[in-house]
Inverse folding.
DNA sequence: AAGTACAACGACATCGTTTACGTAAAATTA
DNA sequence: TAATTTTACGTAAACGATGTCGTTGTACTT
């Protein structure tokens, strides 16, 4: 008991005995048993992080930031990938809550999954990243999807493009819906009649679909891609069809990726604060865990910026 | 006790009572308490993964593969980033071993850190990925670094380049040493006298260093970059200096990255089987944990392939 | 019919820590 | 000085699952 008090910094321990304990700990190479601690209802000092795909640049940056912020407060991070499959996601959440973690950071693949109600109902704090959920209220951290898309499409409109198409993936996601809504807003504002939305599925099938779209007589003269995957597929397709971005066709993507500067012409994109997203979400979750933050759930929206480079038709990349 | 036997599939349970137990479990929404299980010395069904940087493409792909293989066997993964700092790495390992995990996958930043002896001496199985350690023997999974570098530099030699420089990062790492050794092997074999090795530090400082190297009168006519970071920095530098890869200078990198196909000219690189690296390492670790594999430590070396594209000077990218 | 083997289950102790409580000794107060 | 409070420990119980062992019941021998 004295050892326990000493370790947990309880005041009623004499400096003399504290020293004896410390020496014994060193001599015996003693380490507190984590399992036993948790059995008595203590915090596990660990959080869970569930993302669709760690190898996606966006999520890998988010994960990195989460990891960093958690470590700064001596928290460990469970990492799990849901592969965009609600069943896997539910299983991962189940594993984590019973393992136990003190809180969960979740990038939900589906916003209406019934199992989500269950976690939120439990006493494990949950913060959603990037996408909110609809069946229950949790804290959530996201970005200005709609406004960002408006900025992107507005820029294409200013360039004078007449036929701007919107290309996306996973169009059922809230984030995607918002970006597509932004696309529509911008066109409506500009009073353009041409409106064409295309959802790509797999990498393989997208090739054919894009080739058809871009080879048509009345093909679009500009493209707004709603996430990095579709941006990359479009760049590949344009390269294969030998259509010059910025000259023959304009392109602005949502979600900026580092290597966009290395492509010729460099790619104009809406930059999301991925690292900050992870930081903010983690800090919020840890506050919830420590009871430092007690209000009802909050929704934090971070701003995005349009990074102008060359694929939109601008001559010079902006600083 | 009957519930325990039923859950763990002990044979001495009547179907009738098993059914009763199952019903009770469902009715009470009972879940075994993980902490209590571990207290009795059971496996935690979790492994730790420590990489230098999750947001590096190479490691994010490895992490993804680890995650997948682990999940297939119902294992959870702790993710930790060491930020290439031995002190952080040691702390992460310490946290994990006491948390407890059943095994650790480690990409060690330093191969001689004394703390490494301690983990290996403990009873937590360790498998190193990408880089082996030197102070103790563990299972390790890596790639053919030296042979891969030889392939890369041989290819540049065949193109007829006379002044081939080797550019790297973290040259103290075993992997880097091996690649640099491969560079030397190839030049020796080709009886070239020019040999120049450059180690870059941070992204910022590398700019100036590269600019100086590439603007000199007797600048190299070809570059072998020993990892993806240096490849990317070189591409940036060449783009800024407006030096055409493949025409004015040859480039072959070690570690292939998806977007290399999107750059003009596309980048020739040695492709490492990153996903397989993660899979193999995880499978090996789980076998060790389950006692299915008892021999002394093994070192698995996976082959690499040279993906020929255009930056080396070849006209067409290979299929 | 009695003895033997084994299947099916329950009671109890145990893992390592913390909470709650007890009890001295020391410090403070009346 | 006696009464009270505070300090510094120790003891007992608990957390939830499992290993060990004991008990009962059933089937099979002989």
């Amino acid at each position: 008991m004295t050892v326990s008090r000493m370790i947990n910094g309880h005041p009623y321990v004499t400096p003399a005995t504290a020293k004896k304990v410390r020496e014994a700990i060193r001599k015996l190479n003693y380490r507190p048993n984590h399992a036993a601690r948790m059995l008595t209802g203590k915090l596990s000092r660990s959080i869970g992080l569930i993302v669709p795909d760690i190898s996606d640049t966006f999520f890998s940056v988010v994960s990195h930031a989460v990891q960093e912020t958690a470590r700064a407060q001596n928290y460990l991070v469970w990492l799990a990938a849901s592969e965009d499959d609600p069943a896997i996601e539910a299983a991962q959440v189940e594993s984590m809550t019973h393992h136990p973690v003190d809180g969960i950071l979740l990038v939900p693949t589906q916003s209406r999954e019934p199992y989500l109600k269950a976690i939120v109902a439990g006493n494990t704090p949950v913060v959603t990243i990037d996408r909110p959920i609809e069946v229950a209220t949790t804290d959530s951290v996201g970005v200005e999807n709609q406004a960002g898309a408006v900025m992107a499409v507005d820029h294409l409109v200013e360039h004078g493009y007449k036929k701007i198409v919107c290309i996306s993936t996973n169009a059922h996601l809230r984030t995607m819906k918002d970006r597509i809504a932004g696309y529509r807003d911008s066109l409506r504002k500009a009073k353009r009649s041409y409106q064409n939305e295309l959802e790509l599925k797999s990498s393989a099938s997208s090739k054919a679909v894009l080739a058809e779209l871009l080879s048509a007589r009345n093909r679009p003269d500009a493209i707004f891609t709603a996430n990095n995957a579709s941006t990359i597929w479009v760049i590949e397709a344009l390269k294969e069809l030998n259509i010059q971005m910025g000259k023959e066709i304009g392109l602005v993507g949502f979600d900026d990726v580092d290597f966009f500067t290395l492509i010729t012409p460099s790619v104009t994109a809406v930059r999301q604060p991925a690292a900050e997203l992870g930081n903010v979400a983690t800090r919020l979750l840890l506050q919830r865990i420590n009871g430092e933050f007690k209000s009802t759930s909050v929704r934090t929206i971070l701003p995005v910026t349009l990074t102008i480079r060359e694929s939109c038709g601008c001559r010079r990349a902006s600083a």
